[in-house]
Amino acid sequence: MKKITKACVFFIENLLIKVFSIAKVKKSYIMLDSWNGREFSGDIKVLYDYLVEHFSHANFILVTKQSRVVSCKIREVSRKSLKYYYFRACSYHYITNYYYVNQLRSVKTRRNTHYILVWHAAGIFKKIGKSTADSQGKRAINKAGKNISALIVSSKHVKEVYARDLGITKERVVTTGIFRSDFIVKNKLTKASILEKYGLEKLGLKTIILYAPTIRDDKSVDFLPDFKVMKETLGSKYSVVLQLHPMNGRYQVDEAVNDFVLQIQTATSEELMICADIMITDYSSLIFDFAYFQRPMVFYIPDGENYISSKGFYIDYFENTPGKKAINSQELIESILTTQKDFKRYQGVRDVLLEYSQMDGRACERFVEMFFKEQPWLK
């Protein structure tokens, strides 16, 4: 029943794009879609800010949760609205970080428009695409790949892997760097200024731990550590900022620890990394970003044996993650307390991660030079 429903949805989406294709493609239309309209953040937001600063006559269409006109040059459209399909059909550039194979293989890109997929992670870490698919899945990925005009990735070191496993020719894999890295490199923010922005100045005297786990296939959070046990040992000197994956939805922190574990819903990953003295993660590609700050990491992997063997990694997980591994709450606490002592032994690993990241503050600049060089409406 689910398959039939999805097929009907994709048929209708294709039909709507065909209907609106009666209208002309507008070269000045740039449509930006972050996480399928769920959250306008990360790479797409950083690129948007750069484009607004450098383009004077472009029209920006942002995919969000509601439709409204922001200004004469900026419009928000709901993902579920007819306006979305009109602008999708008429925008010369459609730029997104949302990769959904079944949708991408079924909903065709209009001729003379550009579907640009910004890969949401730096480096290569967990296996993706055809490297984990069966024969039917590989055919679907190859079909989806034909609808992608360009794939934006972090560096030349990952180009071949992404081309092979996402069914895209190497010529269409573009190594500009990941856009959010520009913000990380060039921003003038400090821990104090970000805490003040969110009314959390009281955390300034504590060691801030950013806990950013990756999403599980079933979107459960059963793997989270025992925050009550952590608070008993760490509560006086540490605070945990929990940031779940954008596709995870909301998580209710237990009242007994809500003064120890915080969620700052409106803060970006980049802001939280700037604030963090330590990052706890598991299988998240944020390790490539956080390596730039040269601060300690800890890897909490209570489901590690099963996850690592079932998902698969392009690189040896244990050799290429710069921090201690913990499988229960007590080991996690001990790892946090010894991060400074263990920091130097992982320097070589952090250096390798940075090679894969290409974090030089010029990703947006390279993107514009490649895709908008001939446009007459640059400032």
Number of strands: 14
Strands ordered across the widest β-sheet: 3-4-2-1-5-6-7-8
Distance between the termini: 51 Å
- The CATH topology of the largest domain corresponds to Rossmann fold
Uncertain runs with pLDDT below 50, 5 residues or more? none
Structure description:
With 379 residues, the protein is α/β, with parallel strands linked by helices. The chain folds into two domains: 2-177 and 361-371, 3-Layer(aba) Sandwich (Rossmann fold); 190-357, Rossmann fold (3-Layer(aba) Sandwich). The chain contains 16 helices and 14 strands. The strands form two sheets. The protein has an eight-stranded mixed β-sheet, with helices on both faces. A six-stranded parallel β-sheet has the order 11-10-9-12-13-14, with helices on both faces. The longest helix is centred in the first third of the chain and has 19 residues, at 2-20. The chain is globular, with a radius of gyration of 21 Å. The mean pLDDT is 93.
A few lines on this structure:
This protein is α/β, with parallel strands linked by helices and 379 residues long. The protein has helices at 2-20, 42-54, 82-90, 101-106, 135-145, 159-165, 180-186, 191-197, 227-234, 269-275, 286-290, 304-311, 329-337, 339-342, 347-357, 363-371; strands at residues 26-33, 59-64, 68-69, 74-78, 91-96, 114-118, 150-152, 173-174, 207-211, 238-242, 261-262, 278-281, 297-300, 323-326.
Write the layout of secondary structure elements.
Layout: H1 2-20, E1 26-33, H2 42-54, E2 59-64, E3 68-69, E4 74-78, H3 82-90, E5 91-96, H4 101-106, E6 114-118, H5 135-145, E7 150-152, H6 159-165, E8 173-174, H7 180-186, H8 191-197, E9 207-211, H9 227-234, E10 238-242, E11 261-262, H10 269-275, E12 278-281, H11 286-290, E13 297-300, H12 304-311, E14 323-326, H13 329-337, H14 339-342, H15 347-357, H16 363-371
Helix pairs in contact: 1-3, 2-7, 8-10
